[in-house]
Amino acid sequence: MMTMDPTTMVLVLALGNLVLCSTLFFSDASADAASNRGPAAATWGLSKQVQAAAWILLCLGGARVVPEPLAIPGGWALLIGGVALEAGALWEAAGCLRWRRALVPLAIAAVFAFLVSYWIDEEGLRTLAAALLLGAFYLLAAVALARGWRETSMLQRALAIAIALLALVVAARGILVLVMPGGWRWLSHDLLRQFSTAAFYLLMLVTGFGWLLLARERLQRDMARLEVIDLVTETANRRGFFSALAPWMALARRPGSPTSLVVLDLDSFTRVNDGYGHPVGDVVLRHVADLCRRQLRDSDLLGRLVGGEFALLLPRTGSEEAMLVAERMRAAIEGTPVKTERALISMTASFGVTTIRPDDSNVTLFQRAGAALRAAKEGGRNVVRMAPRPVAPEME
């Protein structure tokens, strides 16, 4: 079997990590990508740079360019720190923003433990400590990817499993060197080192390209979310609201509990934008959206249609109950002024209420709700109006 000498193996690992660093750099080269790059990506990039420096130092030590007493402990210490940073980046990407409080002291303690083991025993104990510590930090990275297992994607699950298995291979070298100092049959120390090096190669590829694939997956998920979410109010936008409305329109054709639609429009909202500016108008919109959400159930949906106009979808809610919900919202908006940096702004809203009928389309449904809303505006504003009920045909 053809094998590479240890110095060449380490050189390949150093170059591989440098390639990953450059890949991340060029993937973030555009202004948009750089502005969207989070702290987790910065930590991950730093971890790859530290790992590349560690492998370069070990390579130079193996080639006798740098004295071994400096290259070997320094290189492995940097590698442990780099892998710890990589685990921290994955924890940060998983939403644990305070990972430094636990992981940084743990990494410092791990580096100190390795240096102590190196000074005590230059070969066996050093191999045991390096393998176990690196395997432990890679396992921490796998745990970060596996966090919230049921909600994670198949890609993230596959990466978590692969990293965990490879971490066990890395740790196994140290354990086997401890329990079998002379090797066992065909399983020599040289073969164990090659298995461990192969695991490092695969970990470099899995963690590197896995990170880039996960970043692309998150970007696609965010783009899909932006298509249906209004950025100002964090409610459904027009497209998202009509997508959620479609199945309830279909259910309305079957016998069952009614579903109501409420359309509300902020009174004199244009005056707020003109008098105070659009940033203040956005504050008003967010304030009103928060007030409305407090009156809704988890199954209800609030969406912003355009300007200061919102729509409420109330599943399994009759017209009388919908009127009560709308009245509570009207009172809440009227009784809670909006605090801004420039002024305390009092707002009111007018409401139009209707229920979905079996023969409704989106056009007829919103025409009826819009007619009720216009009636509320013409009736003095700051009121709730119900759309007229259908008139039953007279019996001849």
From TrEMBL:
A Pfam short name: GGDEF
First-level EC class: transferase
The organism's place on the tree of life at top rank: Bacteria
Annotated PROSITE patterns: GGDEF (PS50887)
EC number: 2.7.7.65
Transmembrane parts of this sequence: 70-91, 103-120, 126-146, 158-178, 198-215
Recorded catalytic activity of this chain's protein: 2 GTP = 3',3'-c-di-GMP + 2 diphosphate
Keywords, in A-Z order: Membrane, Transmembrane, Transmembrane helix
Domain GGDEF: 257-389
SMART domains named among the record's database cross-references: GGDEF
InterPro entries xrefs: Diguanylate_Cyclase (IPR050469), GGDEF_dom (IPR000160), Nucleotide_cyclase (IPR029787), Rev_trsase/Diguanyl_cyclase (IPR043128)
Entry protein name: diguanylate cyclase
